[in-house]
Design goal:
12-stranded antiparallel barrel, globular, mainly beta, CHP02001, signal, 1 helix
Length: 254
Amino acid sequence: MNSLGKKAKLNLAGLSAILLASTAAPAFAQDADAPSAITISGNAAVTSDYRFRGLSFSDGDIAIQGGIDVAHESGFYIGTWGSSIEDSATYGHTELDVYGGWSGEVTSGLTLDVGLLYFIYPNGEGGIAGPSDYFEPYASVAGSIGPVELTSGIAYAWSQDSLGNSDNVYIYTGASAGIPNTPITLNANIGINDGSLGNPTGVLGDSDYVDWMLGVDWAVTDNLTATLAYTDTDAPAVNNFTDSAIVFTLGVSF
């Protein structure tokens, strides 16, 4: 996930159960054109560098990513998202995120999103602390000020074996604004990480750092988007890990 958001994720058994439930009721001719209560969407992307909260998970190399989401009209959703990562004994070569939550407008112009995300590394052997997988609850609020959309959120991973029995908190704020009469959208994000996830490879002396991103999206078509972003951190510069980078991503939604 190039950002926490979206960085939003589902298992096939859950999807099958939802689809079965949605088709269990009798179908009537007058309901044929009625909108479905469930929406299924997907995405796929290729990126020049998988950056997550400012850190490179692909060692500066190209990564292939994709996911699927299932949302109910009530606001509840589940989904899954995956990416190739730099191969290592601890994490393997694949990241798979599974998540579920609720998103909806809580007051006029203000949207709340809360959920639980499970980071899975199916090919990893785990580190000294044990397994690599961990859980992370998250929450964010979003609204608009004029043409600018603002999102602020927090993700908290409690103390778990895979985190060295230490917790982690990530707080961020992002802004997005489209340029009128163009397919261009400008984006900015800043985040603060405090805890065990700030030093996942053990090469940094400090696990607390700030990351930021400035980017531009170009909507090539309704479903195809090209993104160019500059990302950096205030952590000690480590080549292809915490150093600044210009990242190009081509993504499609369906």
